[in-house]
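Backbone-to-sequence.
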């Protein structure tokens, strides 16, 4: 299967998630069936002004095992996006422009979802990035800032020459409240000449298939569902084969051991991140409150690992 000329093994992609989708996490999701991975967002201003940070920036680490992989850039200036793209594009199969992050630290700079208020700026950025690489370029948006103007924005992005658009079906002002509006996605899919990757509230195999059916999209992206359960990609592929398999809480906890191993292998096992991931994977386990308390109190990565392993044996 091809997505913008990139060979992908599944139409379900892992969403970019800051502080979550580091290299070990992406490898894990790829192993369980994610078709395409996205880096955490990388600041194009920092890259263009201080290219020497490229060598040390953890977010830019990638490897063969996780291919294909898309780099997500965030920023507010077309020239900086272009410079960052030229410096980094060789390592990635696609470049993605973040025009959907609602976090105030980005929007106050005119970056992320703030770009939805200035669609002409998104057009300028798409032109600049397209001129800087031969690799496919996508844009990730929300439905709008305070009201849904995604049909107009998507038309502009398509006309500017982008190869695909990823749409999280909420307004920037909504944060994560309310339900993702899949009917708005269906409208975009129907009226777009380029692939629309649908995103928002896919949490398991049923919602994944349901979302593709309701929106008639070919590709979808999964964020929080994968953050709590990388096995969601396997659940979907099994479902497509006619088998209804759901990872048990114990199986989800067992994945932490794999994550831990990958973090050690790639030298990125910091306690804060391990705690976040351990908390996520333990959601839904019986008696997880005590486990969480143990995780929070843990002082070393070994203690976090032991807490999960001991608890997992009881599950
Ligand atoms: C912890 C977290 C971090 C995120 N970081 C990013 C990011 O860096 N770039 C981005 O485009 N979206 C980011 N998102 C949004 C997700 O990519 C996705 O659009 C959103 O979670 C909706 O999909 P879901 O319902 O499957 O979670 C983040 C979401 C979460 C929960």
């Amino acid at each position: 299967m091809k997505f913008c000329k990139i060979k992908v093994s599944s139409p379900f992609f892992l969403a970019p998630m800051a502080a979550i989708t580091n290299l070990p996490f992406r490898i894990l999701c790829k192993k369980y069936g994610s078709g395409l991975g996205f880096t955490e967002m990388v600041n194009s201003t920092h890259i263009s002004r201080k290219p020497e940070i490229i060598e040390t920036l953890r977010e830019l680490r990638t490897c063969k095992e996780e291919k294909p992989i898309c780099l997500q850039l965030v920023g507010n200036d077309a020239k900086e996006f272009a410079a960052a793209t030229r410096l980094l594009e060789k390592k990635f199969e696609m470049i993605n422009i973040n025009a959907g992050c609602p976090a105030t630290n980005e929007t106050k700079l005119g970056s992320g979802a703030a770009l939805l208020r200035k669609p002409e700026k998104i057009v300028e950025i798409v032109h600049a990035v397209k001129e800087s690489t031969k690799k496919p370029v996508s844009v990730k948006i929300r439905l709008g800032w305070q009201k849904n103007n995604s049909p107009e924005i998507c038309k502009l992005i398509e006309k500017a020459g982008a190869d695909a658009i990823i749409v999280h079906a909420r307004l920037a002002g909504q944060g994560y409240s309310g339900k993702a509006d899949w009917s708005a996605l269906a409208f975009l899919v129907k009226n777009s000449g380029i692939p629309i990757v649908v995103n928002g509230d896919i949490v398991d195999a049923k919602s994944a298939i349901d979302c593709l059916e309701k929106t008639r999209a070919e590709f979808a992206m999964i964020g929080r569902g994968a953050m709590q359960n990388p096995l969601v990609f396997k659940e979907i592929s099994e479902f497509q084969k006619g088998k209804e398999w759901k990872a048990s809480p114990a199986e989800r906890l067992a994945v932490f051991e794999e994550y831990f191993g990958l973090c050690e292998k790639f030298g990125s096992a910091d306690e804060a991140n391990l705690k976040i991931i351990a908390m996520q994977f333990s959601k839904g386990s019986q008696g997880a409150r005590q486990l969480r308390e143990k995780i929070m109190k843990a002082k070393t990565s070994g203690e976090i690992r032991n807490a999960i392993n001991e608890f997992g044996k009881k599950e």
